[in-house]
Amino acid sequence: MSEGRPSSSLRDRLRTETAAAHQRVDNLFGSGDFGSESDYGRFLSAQAQAWESLRPLLDPGSLARADALRADLDELGLALPKPLDEPLPATLSIGHRYVLEGSRLGSTVLMRMLGDVSPSLAGRACAYLRESAKIDGWRQLSTRLQMDRDGCDSDAIIDDALFVFGLFERAWQATDSAHAKVS
Length: 183
Fold this sequence. Notes:
Blueprint: H1 10-17, H2 19-29, H3 37-54, H4 60-75, H5 94-117, H6 119-124, H7 127-132, H8 136-146, H9 154-182
């Protein structure tokens, strides 16, 4: 880096270097019609499969989201998907948390959209989106990511974020494949 040029924060690097993966996941999870109970159920099932895969590592705030997904699936009469058969890290890193906490921002938008297109579904099966709308954890993490991160392994943190985006992508693909076999 040249002198006088400010270095980018870890948050900026994460946003830039995970943008393509983030866009793929947004495209997949935003591809359904939330006015359709079937499509919304597919969305919840894919989310649940990813969250269930990570369940052994989740902190209380993230467990609340995973539990809310279970409640929504139960409300819709859908089975809880099995976790993906993926090797997991020993603990969640700041990179993993970047994706999980950052997804709260998108959930807020999705909750509004669900309320607009299907007030009935929003009233019955919106526990996950409501729980996800609590963004205090994201605010704290975002502030931390903007601070000086000298000494951290930013490449590993970015790899961890990409792992979580990939996990959600694989969960969508597995759910979509299962849905295609049933249809």
